[in-house]
Design brief:
This protein is an all-alpha fold. Helices cover 43% and strands 0% of the residues. The protein is globular.
Length: 103
Amino acid sequence: MKRPTTFQEQADKLLSRGLIADRDELLQRLNAVSYYRLSDYLYPFRQPRSDQYFEGTNLKVIALITPTSQWSVRVEDLFAEYADIPVQDIGLPYDWKAHPVWT
């Protein structure tokens, strides 16, 4: 049987995949929402056919996402307000709006 991973091991895995995060903040987030929930929120930021995240994927953006917030609306509003920011430069794929997490 596979042994459970510690929060520290989970943080190491996310950081090794390219997530930008303060380790202590990441550990707090993992303790609060679990690795599986956090990795679900990170899914749209994964490179195609890879476990690696797009360059610039940052926990601070993911931290805006909570189960009770209307985060997708807030993020879209921010991108509309700052339309001159290329979303690929902050870790979103070109077709980010087509991903089911945004609908």
